[in-house]
């Protein structure tokens, strides 16, 4: 039974790995035996994560690579470096993404205040920033005949939430892209290459902290609305994503592809 969930020596690439969620997942996977490569723009935070993991788990394998998920040449160079060192790529976690003020619509604004340029940048960062790494890292998976890709969707892909116009559109696109790629890979490259996504509910990150919480730590009105619609009555802890990620990248889910695994404390199931 344990072999079903074995991820020891699994060469795992995480884009956007310096964010709150990516950081927690990277640490968990490294401690549990995966060979983790964090890819992101913030080298200082990447080094901090690597040092932290090495301090608490000297036997773990984790490193950081600077990247830009919007730059195909850089991502492909990252892939070549990883293949040169490890010889393969077993799992790709597409966790890079984000939002911009101009792609949101505040309560005192209307759709006409949406900035099309920032809307496009948010679409590109989240959606194209998933497509480019997928193209780069899928190639060695096809060559080796096996691999797992896990994309990051969102509750905003399921619900037409207020404010987050660009981000929601991009995440809905990621869910659709996940289903498309699951079929594409299975039909053309075989059942050993699987593509799924995870849709986190509400977790406090650096990007949404000021939107969901006040300086004193209490919830804003937006935060209270989230709690009211979450049956668990709380925000998620970043570590609570790790079990689902572990499952999706292991052989325990070997007949699972094209799905979006929801980890939300019941938010998406809530009905008045």
Entry keywords:
14% strand; globular; alpha/beta; 272 residues; 8 helices; single chain; 7 strands; seven-stranded parallel β-sheet
Radius of gyration: 18 Å
User: Could you tell me the strand content as a percent range?
Assistant: 5-15%
The spatial strand order of the largest sheet comes to 3-2-1-4-5-6-7
Q: How would a crystallographer describe the biggest sheet?
A: 7 strands, parallel
Mean pLDDT: 94
Number of DSSP helices? 8
What is the share of helical residues?
40-55%
Counting DSSP E segments of at least 2 residues, the number of strands comes to 7
Separation of termini? 40 Å
Shape: globular
Runs in which pLDDT lies below 50 for 5 or more consecutive residues are none
User: Class by helix and strand content?
Assistant: alpha/beta
Order of helices and strands: EHEHEHEHEHEHHHE
Would you give an account of this structure?
This protein has helices spanning 20-31, 43-56, 72-86, 116-144, 165-189, 209-212, 221-228, 242-249; strands at residues 11-15, 35-40, 61-66, 91-94, 147-152, 193-200, 260-263. A seven-stranded parallel beta sheet has the order 3-2-1-4-5-6-7, with helices on both faces. The chain has 272 residues and is an alpha/beta fold. The mean pLDDT is 94. Strand 1, helix 1 and strand 2 form a beta-alpha-beta unit. It is globular. Helix content is 42%, strand content 14%.
């Amino acid at each position: 039974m344990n072999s079903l969930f074995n991820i020891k020596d699994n060469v795992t690439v995480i884009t956007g790995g310096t964010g709150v969620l990516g950081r927690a997942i990277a640490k968990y996977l490294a401690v549990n035996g995966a060979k983790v490569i964090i890819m992101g723009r913030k080298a200082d935070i990447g080094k901090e994560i690597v040092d932290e993991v090495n301090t608490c788990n000297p036997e773990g394998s984790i490193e950081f690579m600077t990247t830009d998920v919007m730059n195909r040449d850089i991502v492909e160079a990252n892939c070549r470096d990883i293949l040169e060192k490890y010889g393969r790529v077993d799992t790709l976690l597409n966790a890079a993404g984000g939002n911009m003020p101009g792609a949101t619509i505040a309560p005192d604004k209307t759709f006409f205040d949406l900035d099309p340029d920032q809307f496009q940048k948010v679409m590109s960062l989240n959606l194209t920033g998933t497509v480019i790494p997928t193209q780069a890292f899928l190639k060695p998976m096809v060559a080796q005949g096996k691999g797992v890709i896990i994309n990051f969707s969102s509750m905003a892909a399921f619900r037409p939430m207020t404010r987050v116009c660009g981000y929601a559109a991009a995440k809905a696109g990621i869910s659709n892209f996940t289903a498309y790629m699951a079929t594409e890979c299975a039909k053309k490259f075989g059942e050993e290459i699987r593509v799924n996504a995870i849709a986190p509910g509400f977790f406090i990150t650096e990007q949404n902290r000021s939107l969901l919480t006040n300086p004193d730590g209490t919830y804003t009105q937006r935060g209270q609305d989230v709690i009211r619609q979450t049956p668990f009555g709380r925000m998620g802890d970043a570590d609570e994503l790790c079990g689902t990620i572990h499952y999706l990248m292991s052989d325990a889910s070997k007949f699972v592809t094209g799905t979006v695994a929801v980890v939300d404390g019941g938010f998406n199931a809530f009905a008045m």
